Amino acid sequence: MKKFFTLLLLPLVVCPRVVAQSIAPFQKGDRVTFVGNSITDGGHYHSYIWLYYMTHFPGMRLWMANCGVGGDTAKEILARFDDDVLSKNPTVLTFTFGMNDTGYYEYNSADSAAFARQKLQEARERFALCEEKLKSLKGIRTMMIGTSPYDQTSTFNDDIFAHKNDNMQRVIALQEEAAKRNGWEFLDLNKPMVALNMKQQESDPAYTLIGSDRIHPDNDGHMAIAYLFLQAQGMEGKKVADMQLDATSGKATRAENCRISKVKKTADGLQFDCLAASLPFPLDTVPHGWGFYHGAAQVTKVLPSFIDDLSDEHLTVTGLSGNYEMSIDGIVIDTLSAATLSAGINLSNYRHTPQYQQALAVMALNETRWEVERRFREWAWVNYDFMMPAGFLNDNSERAAQKFRELCKDNAWLASKRGTYDQMVRPEVREAYQQEMKCLVDRIYKLNQPRKHRFLLKKL
């Protein structure tokens, strides 16, 4: 089966703890391309990774691009590589494949073992050509990513391609070997997710990290992928801010990734100003994307440490007694005991703080950017998988339009993209959408600059 378009669930859990992997963080000015198949094409993990950098490193402007095409194997990725990937002038390139390369229904046949060997050999031969291409690149940091798994263990239905993921892990081993040979970075999503999946299935055999098609993550699953990626980059534990104050002395005792000023003891509490260097990492509660049903925030149901790990805006105040109303810029946030304040709280758990609301605005603009970029990925699917084999790559002529209509007669999925084709075939439309994305990113990097906030603790 070549094409999959249903996009569904993939959450993550904290027990057992995922094995730490290491990849280098991005640098200011990096242009990052995420190369893959439909999991990348229709997914959000790359958008969430960029959102983390937008909020945690607001002064470090980056650019990231979705370079996935639904249904692609390594062969199709290589065919579009120059026109689709290198044309974006990346400084960093991530490369993932394997879901489509390993086949589907044939794993339930009598000759499944022979089929698995055949698909592995095909993947090896195709990937060898990709490796030669990647080796020829100059000045581009290359990262192999082992794909998220096919769930072959959940019992939520009987439609399982037995041992498919075993073969996918053999393909991932090819990537890891190539990374070692060539000095590339490597990150495996598959094995950690399988282990976490099976841990949950000990108590709930029908549980799945993936979705109802056992292939595609939903928004919360893509946020889980982003978590693994950011964790491997060493982002776990990086503070949004760490504010520690002693109410008895009226002084700040710690200010990590922030500046605390104008600390003042009041008759009934404490007030101070704080300018953090980062914003909270926001989690969307609304599903986005075709076929998506989960908001990204649902990742916390199976990954309860997510906010503390990646968005710790910590406030600790000692030397108080009784209960206090906490407000920020005049907005009442919560009523807290002195014991709770002394133990410390993570302000990222409060969605109504001014700083979280600012981060949500950044998130909304980034989501709008993702929606515009999706138009380019739908165009890429039509352009590379259909028009290019027919000899009409990037052809804006009426002859190409006629060919497109001919191809639609025998392909209902292609026919469903008629509206996309009629728009995106016009260079002026593509240029306008590119300008729209640039405008959105420009606005994001103005909006994401942290602001000073006035904190007030008033005794009740």
What's the β-strand tally?
Answer: 14
Sheet-strand content, in percent, reads: 15-25%
**Low-confidence runs (pLDDT<50, min 5 residues)?**
1-17
Helix content: 40-55%
Tell me the Rg in angstroms: 24 Å
The global form is globular
CATH homologous superfamily title of the domain at 31-232 = SGNH hydrolase
Q: From the structure provided, what is the oligomeric state, counting identical versus distinct chains?
A: single chain
The first-level CATH class name of the domain at 31-232 = Alpha Beta
Structural class: alpha/beta
Largest sheet: 5 strands, parallel
Strand order of the largest sheet: 2-1-3-4-5
Mean pLDDT value: 93
Q: Determine the number of helices (DSSP H or I, runs of at least 4 residues).
A: 15
CATH topology of the domain at 31-232: Rossmann fold
Q: Report how far apart the termini are.
A: 65 Å
| H/E element order | EHHEHEHEHEHHEEEEHHEEEHEHHHHHE
What do you see in this structure?
By secondary structure, this protein is α/β, with parallel strands linked by helices. Among the domains are: 31-232, 3-Layer(aba) Sandwich (Rossmann fold); 358-447, no CATH class. It has helices at 38-41, 45-56, 74-85, 112-135, 164-182, 190-201, 219-232, 299-302, 306-310, 338-343, 354-387, 398-408, 412-415, 418-424, 427-447, and strands spanning 31-36, 63-68, 92-95, 141-146, 185-188, 239-246, 251-256, 258-266, 269-276, 312-318, 323-328, 331-337, 345-346, 453-459. The protein has a five-stranded parallel beta sheet with strand order 2-1-3-4-5, with helices on both faces. The protein is globular.
